[in-house]
């Protein structure tokens, strides 16, 4: 019973959400505070795991009928997990996510509420719209980055605008993912590639403003190395399998993108610590579905 429940939460993706929060804390400057209290780091990592996990489980709950046709191997349509059990698990995870955030401060708590609402809106309504869906999904990730920044509430107004960058990136991945089952359109994939380039350029520009471009460049290059080759393969042959590989690579590479944020606002060693999450995420992705 435990394995199907874990499959619902997409464990490999949970690791990427932790990287989001770690990047946000770097942007806030929390790692540069001498003798900073480690407790908020732990609470926010628990919070993002709960919020992301709850969101993806509710996604399967709302998609149960569609998955019965397109993905009958998923835990709910295959009968491994009942709809009631999945709903209970999703609700529990979201509550854990919100409670953990409130343990840090009210700003983090309200952001966790906002993430929960945004994820539920996407799961039930947003994903069915070709324009609103990608932006809605991106909003969840953007707010997740800001959740990390909220470790120091006074830094949120200064840096909240950076949440637009993961919104653009995740919107691009979500656009691509619409072709996972039946194949996609090369034009959509090319637009996604342009958005990928825009994201890399923006992070590089911000790193330059922080006088840390040299530190961030290795991670930005690694980021590009992971996301562009599978996307190019999907453009050449826009089959469901190739698009699925491009989506998987794009999601897991969020860890490297977040490492670039840490390099831009903190230090190279801390950025390498974030990159170390990538092998774990990729290992989990071999066992559990990413999408």
Automatic annotation (TrEMBL):
Subcellular location: Membrane
Stored Pfam families: UbiA
Chief site of localization: membrane
Residues spanning the membrane: 12-33, 39-62, 83-102, 132-152, 158-176, 188-207, 213-232, 252-280
MF GO annotations: transferase activity, transferring alkyl or aryl (other than methyl) groups
Record flagged with keyword Membrane: yes
Keyword annotations of the record: Cell membrane, Membrane, Transferase, Transmembrane, Transmembrane helix
GO cellular component entries: membrane
Record's bilayer topology term: Multi-pass membrane protein
Name under which the protein is recorded: Polyprenyltransferase
Organism for this UniProt entry: Larkinella knui
């Amino acid at each position: 019973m435990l394995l199907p429940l874990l499959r619902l939460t997409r464990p490999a993706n949970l690791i990427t959400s932790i990287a989001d929060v770690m990047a946000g804390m770097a942007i806030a400057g929390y790692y540069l505070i001498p003798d900073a209290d480690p407790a908020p780091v732990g609470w926010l990592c628990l919070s993002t795991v709960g919020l992301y996990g709850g969101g993806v489980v509710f996604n399967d709950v709302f998609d149960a009928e569609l998955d019965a046709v397109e993905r009958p191997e998923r835990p709910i349509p295959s009968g491994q997990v009942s709809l009631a059990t999945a709903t209970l698990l999703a609700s529990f995870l979201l509550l854990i996510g919100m409670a953990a955030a409130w343990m840090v401060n009210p700003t983090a708590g309200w952001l966790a509420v906002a993430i929960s609402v945004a994820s539920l809106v996407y799961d039930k309504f947003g994903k069915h719209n070709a324009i609103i869906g990608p932006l809605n999904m991106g909003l969840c990730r953007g707010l997740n980055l800001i959740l990390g920044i909220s470790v120091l509430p006074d830094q949120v107004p200064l840096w909240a605008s950076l949440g637009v960058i993961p919104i653009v990136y995740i919107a691009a991945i979500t656009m691509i993912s619409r072709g996972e089952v039946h194949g996609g359109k090369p034009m959509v994939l090319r637009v996604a590639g342009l958005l990928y380039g825009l994201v890399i350029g923006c992070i590089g520009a911000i790193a330059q403003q922080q006088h840390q471009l040299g530190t961030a460049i290795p991670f930005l290059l690694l980021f590009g190395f992971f996301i562009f080759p599978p996307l190019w393969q999907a453009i050449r042959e826009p089959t469901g399998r190739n698009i699925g590989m491009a989506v998987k690579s794009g999601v897991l590479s969020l860890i490297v993108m977040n490492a670039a944020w840490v390099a831009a606002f903190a230090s190279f060693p801390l950025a390498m610590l974030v990159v170390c999450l990538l092998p774990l995420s990729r290992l989990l992705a071999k066992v559990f579905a990413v999408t």
